[in-house]
Amino acid sequence: MNDFFTVTGLTRTFGGVVAIDALDFAQKKGSIFSIIGPNGAGKTTLFNCISGIYRPDSGEICFQGRRIDGLKPDAIARHGIARTFQNLELFFRMTTMENLMLGRHIHMRTNIWHGLTMFHKNSTAAREEAEHREKVEHIIDLLDLQSARDVPVGALPYGRQKLVELGRALALEPSLLLLDEPSAGMTSDERQDLFFWIKDIQQELGVSILMIEHNMQMVMDISDRVLAIDFGKKLVEGTPEEVAAHPEVIKAYLGED
Ligand SMILES: Nc1ncnc2c1ncn2[C@@H]1O[C@H](COP(=O)(O)OP(=O)(O)O)[C@@H](O)[C@H]1O
Ligand SMILES: [Mg+2]
């Protein structure tokens, strides 16, 4: 029925710890699907399996009709899946523009550093670089990052760094975007802005979003579907209202804070 993104019987262990335990879920194309659960529930491990950082022990991950479990991160990126990290993974001495250009590496036929130092304006490399810059400028506009464009990322406030990471993932032109706790460490104003950017990414760019998020208000407001996990297992999946009303979810959240 759903051939956009499906996870079936996914299991990943670390020694004796079962981080993901026979997990099943399916996401519809174009939707915002959120994953919630207490610390240690296995959320980031799930993303690491989807993005190819970890190889699952068993189970299947299918994207647009193809098995992607066990592929290398680059191959998964080429299938159109991009991600952000819970702890930012950016080049802090490089500018916003440069970090976003790196996000386009899977689309580059020629070496970017060669391209950046080219003086022959009519060369293929120079033309290609101009195309990449145009795409990146569009993302900078979309995320309102103009003032951060030429600033080393390390000099930006944390909320802006998170946006640069979002931009770097978007530069890949993904069909599916994985966001690991996008609003963590943000002020409530920044979170409000992020809400609208995520909505824009879904609606204007047509990107489907799979998101791990702790802020329940954000999850409730933005998600089409929510999956709650604990100990690597599904507690409940449904609409935000259905999930928030589930006694185990209430207990897990009260138990955490
Ligand atoms: N690389 C690893 N090596 C050993 N244990 C890990 C590793 N990654 C995750 N785990 C364990 O797997 C469980 C789930 O962790 P994680 O996926 O980070 O949870 P969450 O993102 O939901 O907080 C935890 O018990 C964690 O200690
Ligand atoms: Mg995590």
Description:
- There is one protein chain.
- This protein is α/β, with parallel strands linked by helices and about 260 residues long.
- The chain folds into two domains: about 1-80 and about 175-255, Rossmann fold (3-Layer(aba) Sandwich), CATH 3.40.50.300; about 90-170, no CATH class.
- About 35% of the residues lie in helices and about 25% in strands.
- The chain contains ten helices and ten strands.
- It has helices at about 45-50, 75-80, 95-100, 110-115, 125-140, 160-170, 190-205, 215-220, 240-245, 245-255; strands at about 5-15, 15-25, 30-35, 60-65, 65, 80-85, 175-180, 210, 225-230, 235-240.
- The protein has a six-stranded mixed beta sheet with strand order 6-7-8-3-9-10, sandwiched between helices. A four-stranded antiparallel beta sheet has the order 2-1-4-5, covered by helices on one side.
- Strand 7, helix 7 and strand 8 (about 210) form a beta-alpha-beta unit.
- Helix 3 (about 95-100) packs parallel to helix 6 (about 160-170).
- Magnesium ion binds near residues 43, 44 and 86.
What key phrases describe this protein's structure?
257 residues; alpha/beta; Rossmann fold; 2 domains; 6-stranded mixed sheet; 37% helix; binds adenosine-5'-diphosphate; binds magnesium ion
Return the CATH class of the largest domain.
Answer: Alpha Beta
Q: How helical, in percent, are the residues?
A: 25-40%
* Residue fraction in strands: 15-25%
Described by the principal axes of the CA atoms, the overall outline is globular
- Looking at CATH, the homologous superfamily of the largest domain is P-loop containing nucleotide triphosphate hydrolases
- Put simply, the count of helices is 10
Contiguous runs where pLDDT drops below 50 for at least 5 residues: none
Mean residue pLDDT: 90
What is the count of β-strands? Answer: 10
The oligomeric state is single chain
CA-based gyration radius? 19 Å
The appropriate CATH architecture of the largest domain is 3-Layer(aba) Sandwich
**SS-based class:** alpha/beta
Bound molecules: adenosine-5'-diphosphate, magnesium ion
Cα end-to-end separation: 38 Å
